[in-house]
Amino acid sequence: MTYDLTIGDRTFSSWSLRGWLMLVCFGLPHRTRMAGLYSGTLAADLADLAPARTVPVLRTPDGAVLTDTIAMAETLAERHPDAGLWPRDPHARALARSMVAEMHAGFGALRSACPMMLAHAWDGFVAPDAVQADLSRLTALWALARARHGADGPWLFGTYSLADVFYAPVAARIATYGLPVDAAAQDYVAHTLAETSFRQWRALGLTRHYDPMPYAVPLPQRPWPGPAPLTATPVDHGTPENATCPYSGLPGTHLLQLDGRTFGFCNATCRDKTVADPAAWPAFMALL
After folding, report:
1. DSSP secondary structure letter of residue 230
2. Mean pLDDT estimate for the chain
3. Which residue ranges does the record assign to the GST N-terminal domain (predicted)?
């Protein structure tokens, strides 16, 4: 009962982030593979997933191919009615579905002017009037959901739902570009950036490097506004405290140091995702 999810580059692919979160955050078993958005291999990578031509793509355990995040969300909710993808209250569920549909189809000015880019933040971005209008609509929707249905937790409908999945990329855009929103919306953005699965997605994206960087703008960079990571460093030599990788259980061949301690990982990706944000990985923090 394992889903196959094909995604694009994590630092930039907002739609891929949605597909991944709806599997990870609701505990649905899956395998992930990458398609080359920026390497020129996208068409070849999707050749066995007709009719797909964009990412993400979800293949169900029985072989059905879904090529749109709305279709993925509804199919997963249908197949896993007890997983809590949508709010249980019918009025909350109706509003959540409406908000997800509007996010999926709207906010074009915000998407165009502020592509998702998770490597760092930009300093001094000035939001055009059309983006300001999108932000006003966005924050009004968030406030409405929180006022009507958010009493049971910090998410839009109290507990985490597909609404939070679909709005996570736009929360990231607000953070990256320093977009002006009210205090309540800033709190929601901060909560999104601190959520473990989002931090893991970003850390995995940081294991890849780009030259030139897609979606660069002529502005000074500033540090990512999410939780400040612990300072870890990759090293070539040392004796690790752990005999096996905390993720795979395989022998540790790639090393990092943190607070003068050395830890081993089975490959460069396992090490580098941990270097990017050690506290995002509970298995590593258990070692630490």
Report:
1. P
2. 97
3. 1-84
Instruction: Specify the DSSP class assigned to residue 246.
Output: T
Q: How confident is the model at residue 1 (pLDDT cuts 50, 70, 90)?
A: confident
Token pair 């400040």 is found at 228
* Polymer length of the chain: 288
222 sits in the region (left: phi over 0; alpha: psi -120 to 50; else beta) called beta
pLDDT of residue 83: 98
Question: Domain range holding 16?
Answer: 3-79
Do the domain assignments include residue 168?
yes
Q: How many CA atoms lie within 13 A of 157 on its CB side?
A: 25
**H or E segment to which residue 92 belongs:** helix 90-105
What residue type is 248 in one-letter code? S
The reported pTM is 0.97
CA–CA distance, 3 with 1 (Å, rounded to integer): 7
Count of domains observed in the chain: 3
Write the pLDDT tens digit of every residue in 145-182.
999 999 999 999 999 999 999 999 999 999 999 999 99
Question: Do 36 and 107 belong together in one domain?
Answer: no
For 235, counting Cβ atoms within 10 Å of its Cβ (0-12 exposed, 13-18 middle, 19+ buried), the class is: middle
Same domain, 171 and 94: yes
Please check whether residue 69 is in contact with residue 104, taking contact to mean a CB–CB distance below 8 angstroms: yes
What HEC string does 182-193 produce? CHHHHHHHHHHH
